[in-house]
Write a structure and sequence with these properties.
homopentamer; 88 residues; mainly beta; OB fold (Dihydrolipoamide Acetyltransferase, E2P); 45% strand
Chain lengths: 88, 88, 88, 88, 88
């Protein structure tokens, strides 16, 4: 999983039916020091995240697990909202 | 998932039978600011996208979900046509 | 999926039994403009491709779909021979 | 799998229910010479690892295997604590 | 799949039980010209490979296929020992 900041959302009228009720958010992945790290991506949300929040997200088929048994065709999903992280 | 622009298509006479009725489109992934981001790829389409349109696509086995129960051997599929996206 | 040129083949006496009757080809991925793009890799072939041909290949578990029900331990497979591609 | 050093942990009140009892650790992947190699990430732990330890972790759906039959939505999991590694 | 040279091994007392009888080898991926290409990684072995040998390995869930029905939590596995490869 990776830390990320929610920076926007996507509006799409024509999309796969299994995506139709889902929020599509634009994420900027973050490094452990809080700086931007890598390309922006589009993820589905299952935990109520919104623009401006820090989250962590999962890549791959696992991103569709929270919607089981619906087979959501996504490869990225927000699975937690970060309160804070600590470096030891 | 990633934002992308459809920039072309691929013609292939000899291909896996489970790909035979599918449109094969060439995509240029996009960053959140609309600039090109990363390598071009070939994706199948299940939402009626065409050259010139902005879409979002999924990577991995999830790309074959829209064709279930056919096991389409693809690792990239367009799953939505983007009306617009907003950065918060 | 990605476009690629078949540039060689691999000979391996000791390998997983489920790979034993398969052709192992060395691929150079290509960008949409036909230039080399990224690292060479080894892929299995299910469409009769040979050295010198332009193909497209799939990464991940999907690469084993054409051999179902045999569970071929591969993460890359050629699924089509490219006649040509067009940029719009 | 990759070698990594555990450098921190993540606190998240709102997260997927299947992640709720799991430790979320921040990892810095390592090259074979022990230097940092690539981006930090967040992984679940199933072997009792803690901050400061050297571990190896797995990416992808395999990261959820240790929690089966719970379908943990993770794409990275620590699966071993490294005593040492040797270069031949 | 990718070509690689086996450059070392990993000793880990505490690890996932499904990894306990497996050899954990450190691999350096190779380009088609035999030069180093990309980061070192840790892979399981199912074909009897040892340090110094040239192999090819598979990434992803496919790496656990040779151990079926055991669900080995690995994302990289050596599936063949290379005799030689030829560039056409």
């Amino acid at each position: 999983m990776q830390l990320a900041r929610v920076i926007g959302d996507v509006v799409a009228t024509y999309k796969d039916p299994n995506l139709s009720s889902l929020k599509l958010l634009v994420l900027q992945p973050l490094a452990a020091d809080g700086s931007d790290a890598g390309r922006t991506l589009v993820a589905v949300d299952s935990v109520g995240a919104g623009v401006g929040e820090t989250v962590f997200f999962v890549r791959g088929k696992e991103a569709s697990f929270p919607f089981y048994p619906t087979e959501v065709p996504t490869d990225a999903g927000i699975v937690g909202i970060v309160d804070h992280w600590d470096l030891g």
